[in-house]
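Thanks for the sequence, V.! I ran Regulatory helix-turn-helix protein, lysR family right away. Repeating your input here for the record:
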Amino acid sequence: MAVSDIDTRLLRHFVAVAQELHFGRAAARLFVAQQALSRDVARLERELGVRLFDRTTRRVTLTAPGERLLAHATELLARHDAMLAELRDTTRPLLVDVMHDRSTAQRVLDAARPLAPGAELEARFHGGCDAAVRALLAHRVDVVFGRLSGVRATLPADLTRRPVRLEPLGLMVLDDDPLARHDTIPMALIRGRTIDTSGGNPEAPEWTGLGAELVGEHGGTVAPDHHPGMAAVAAAPPEETAHHIRSTGWPVLAKTDAAPIPGTVVRPLTDPVPLYPWTMAHRDTLRHPGVDALHRALDRLMPAEGWLDPPAGAWLPAIDR
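Predicted structure:
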């Protein structure tokens, strides 16, 4: 095979290993098996006739030819992706993950649709930012919303990120819970209480991590990771969610846009006000009228509703501060 015929997939896999300098991390980033990744790198080395990496049981380093190839491969792949993005049919639907119904992201999508009447914008509901980012990496969605700082997936370098909102959080409690008597719930009142920080979705680390940090700092106890019924609650109808809360008695950390659940109320948390940081993200090379509409919708919504104006003394996870 001529060098000019090298598969771009081999170059992508080489670049991932060269950037991570670890085959396991690179494989996880690419969502491929480590054994398959090693085979691809070995194949590329055979086709080029050079050794690209020095490998020991403890470390992986680039050789001099590997260093030279990395610079060229990175530029080549960037040009390749930009070319495909420019040629891609912009009349196809733009797939936007809004996490869940009634979310901040859903509001942005609803506001964007009238601004792009000739484009189709379709919502997707992965239920968490980590899952949405994995779908973005696999090209199953185009735009994601959520707390990017808390996801497990490795974020690509060619990602446009736009801060969207610092959303105040609350507690969903049974309507006969003593906490329901308060119009707002000071954080001091969670001391000694067990709080469900999963919202019924333990597969959203960007959310559960925030909740665990918040509850731990204010003297509460995080509910067990996999208490009975949790996985089912993530996709359950409101009545079953209410039953779950009543059976455990644990208040649930919730966004203020949480859908009404029979037998429960959502009360804002205060002193301090905990915030969930929303970000919109898509690849730099994405060209679609729907993307422009999303940005224009944000241009209107954010200043009008003060989405990035936190209250005095608000709380954010340490990594987001």
